[in-house]
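Data availability (excerpt). The following record was deposited with the supplementary files.
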Amino acid sequence: MVLAELIGASIIILSIVYIYYKYVIYNFWHKKGVFYIKPIVPIGNILPLVTGKTQVGVFFQDAYQKYKEHRCFGMYAFFKPNLVITDLDLMRTVLTKEFKSFHDRGLYSNETIDPAINRLFLNGQNWLHYRAKMTPTFTAGKMKQMFVIVKQCGEELAKHLEKNAQMRDTVEMRDILTRYASDSIMSAAFGVNTNCIQKPNEYQSTSQEKTTFDSNFFKRILIRFAPQVTDFFSLPFSVQAVTNFYMNLFRDTVEYRKANGIVRPDLMSLLIEHVEKDFDPKVTVKKLTTAEATAQVSFALFLAGFETSSTTATFALFELAQHQDMQEKVCKEIDEILAKHGDLTYDALNDMTYFHKVINETLRKYPPLPFLHRVCTEEIDLPTTNIHVPKGTLITVPLLGVHRDPSIYPDPDKFDPERFNADKVKERHPYAFMPFGDGPRNCVGSRFGYLQAKIALVSLLSKYKFKLHSQTPVPIVFSEKSAILVAKNGVHLIIEPR
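Predicted structure:
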């Protein structure tokens, strides 16, 4: 009798929940007269993401391709309405023109349980304060100061692969380039010698834990699409041991430098200066020491830059290995520019025009973060539409979809650096290419990301030739469990001396 009553009560509760979702929650876009994809109770439209069958950027790319005739369309992530923007002018409106109404990323941020990760996802005034500090540290002048340090890492990378080249070995490029990225960002930005290129160590193994993001895939989906749930249960975004490792490392570095009066031409010295000069404890839940604040900022920047430059360099080599004529053209330009300048310098790097097109075409085809998220922070009537967007509505820009839209880039799966000839770029909408986002909240470290990737590639292509190995599929298969675009089983290339 009791069991029957429990079953009956459960059926009633589930029925109420189903009706509430179907006719209340999932009636949001219908009431606003916005075209939307029919959702499934209670997941909404993100079943392929919850089951781990589709990479999140590819998921939004597919939706973009199917429904791009609508300037924007509605979806649901669990119980949360999500407006997907497909029109480039509307993207400019959201990211730039009406930034005041869309300045937050809408990602889970908990200062108490994830203080370091919180720096990546700051909102409102906290973000403005943080951005004001960070912008001066990534100018062209500061990049020139850090150039020599990154160059040393590039030389170490090329030297390390010399034996492999002599043996015509197969090398898994993502692994070695991730190790290079770890060395270069830790050395150039934070003055820490990790020596991961020569031998994987605690820095590398710790970093490789999905760039410190927890391996629980479903939790990451909740964090991205249902932050209220993760906030309610106080679920941390990161692996605590990894966070502690780097936070302690950065904090000890700051304290050592301050105690010994050490100033180095790197990001750490700049951060210490900025944090110490006008650190405002009001923007955090608790008052932090200069060392703690700098450690948090450093850790956030390390996370943001660790994977992106290595994946860009990896995909560039993957494409050049398939297109030997382009590889030869890049190598010829590198040889000529190095001969002209006498060595690899910051100015020499900027003189490599075809090489720069190759990098941009790589970023078009493989944008590191293949989608952009914003959240409506101030309700607005979206200009040039009849849509009223309430506060809290999630906004998605399907970047991979835009970058592979055949109406913008004919034959989009073809790798063609000539797309970035000056005349071709001028013909396109300025928001048709956004590998680092756009507007006031674009990637503050994009210059450093370009620098890392370019130095790695010049260091390798000036000495070695790369060919595709049969172990690497064409086209590349992306890992479904990574938010950024990474090859599922690595990128294996044959390396030879030039």
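Summary of structural features: The longest strand covers residues 72-77.
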